[in-house]
Amino acid sequence: KARLALKTEAELRLIAPEFCPELADLLASGQAREFYAADAALFEDATLVFVATGCKGSDAAWHARAKTAGALVSVVDYPGLCDAMTPAIVDRDPVVVAIGTEGTAPLLGRQIKTPLDIERDLGMVGGDIFHGALHLDQLYSLRPVAGYAAYRMPVTHLYLCGSGAHPGGGVTGLPGHHAARQILVDRKRWA
After folding, report:
1. What is the value of pTM for the model shown?
2. What distance in Å separates the CA atoms of residue 62 and residue 45, rounded to the nearest whole number?
3. Which of 107, 134, 157, 161 has its CA 20 to 30 A from that of 70?
């Protein structure tokens, strides 16, 4: 949120016993001002104050100070102490997406992944969660590839039952169901 605020005319004022590396870099580069005590200048002309101490008592005290100064306050993870909700932000410059949960599920909002995140974090090419896009050349008898659409793989007793199998990914469970049916048919031949 600090990075995005810097794209506006906002002045960042920070106070904390210690800063994460990213905020420390903003202070070192002069893009933010550090305050060492909660004096009147900290909240002077403040429009929006973010509070995130991790302690509900401290958060409530900081909330009260900022409110007394006339600022809107957003206390991280405590919707009851928020005058303003700020969404989780996915910044893929030049595109910025805001995901609002109105404070009810901030962790969920942070877990939403873009295809770029999926590719980077999970190694799925193109962020494709279906193990091969559902294009015409990847449907029915061509899924995953021609010759292997009956769930049997080239290795004996190995069956494909995930998103790469017909009818594709999602939450239906059909690839597993169909593979299990094929295993039962083949099992009769094994005996």
Report:
1. 0.49
2. 16
3. 107
Cβ atoms of residues 51 and 63 within 8 Å: yes
pLDDT(175) > 90? no
One-letter amino acid for residue 16 of the chain: A
**Distance from C-alpha of 149 to C-alpha of 160, rounded to nearest angstrom:** 9
Tokens of 157: 């007793």
In a 10 Å sphere around its CB, with 0-12 CB exposed, 13-18 middle and 19+ buried, how is residue 44 labelled? exposed
DSSP state of 18: S
Q: How far is CA 36 from CA 33, 46, 63, 100, 108, in A?
A: 10, 17, 17, 32, 33
Tens digits of residue pLDDT in 115-158: 777 788 877 777 777 766 677 777 777 878 888 888 888 888 88
